Amino acid sequence: MKRALPCNLDIETGRLILRRLAKRDVDAMTRIMEDPEVVEFVGGGLTSSRAEVAAWIARDGRRVRETGFGARAITLRAGGDLIGWIGTSRSEDAPGRELTFGIAARYRRRGYGAEALAALIGATPRFPTYAWAESVNEASLRMLSGCGFRVIGRSSEAGGSCKVRLALKHSNTG
Questions:
Q1: DSSP H helical ranges for 88-137
Q2: Which pLDDT does position 113 carry in this prediction?
Q3: Per-residue pLDDT averaged across 11-33, rounded?
Q4: What pLDDT sits at residue 26?
Q5: What pLDDT sits at residue 31?
Q6: What is the side-by-side order of every strand in the sheet holding 82-90?
Q7: Which residue of 21, 54, 73, 153 is 20 to 30 Å from 63, comparing CA positions?
Q8: Is 128 in contact with 95 (CB distance < 8 Å)?
């Protein structure tokens, strides 16, 4: 089975370094994952405790070593601050990988998410990449569209919810 990306590979851009999450990131990631504004469209909108974040980072480290899929810390080259995460997992709905990401609220609207996404896609240009975004998540939809994703489907959540999720596919895969 094709690996997503060598697990020890850092991806660098002009302003960012995307690297494996590590134990040293637990406190910074906890601050990010405790912010309801950050997790509004991730993981059902539930915040995460320090213990949950530590467990996630440990699980993710194993998954990255085994498959190459997993999350990467998004850090600033200048100063090294951890400002979010971006990662992939095996897609259950399509062949390829499914994207997930989050940026700390104070670092939004500066192009960091798009820069990280473009770098991740560029590191594995022919690997099919999909994303889900809620139709009301305009910022993520703009970022995904600007990075070459296009809407390929829609679904509504069960139970009468009015949430509509859009399936997106990166244009690198036809």
A1: 112-123
A2: 94
A3: 95
A4: 97
A5: 96
A6: 11-12, 16-20, 70-76, 82-90, 97-103, 129-134, 164-170, 149-156
A7: 153
A8: yes
Report d(CA 160, CA 48) in Å as an integer: 26
Residue 168 near residue 133 (C-beta atoms within 8 A): yes
Q: Are 97 and 127 in contact (CB under 8 A)?
A: yes
Looking at residue 47, its amino acid is: T
- Tokens linked to 116: 């990280």
Residue pair 119/18 in contact (Cβ under 8 Å)? The answer is yes
Provide mean pLDDT across the span 142-154. 85
Total Cβ atoms within 10 A of residue 116: 27
Going 134 to 135 to 139 to 145, the CA torsion angle's sign is positive
- The first and second tokens of residue 107, run together, are 């670092």
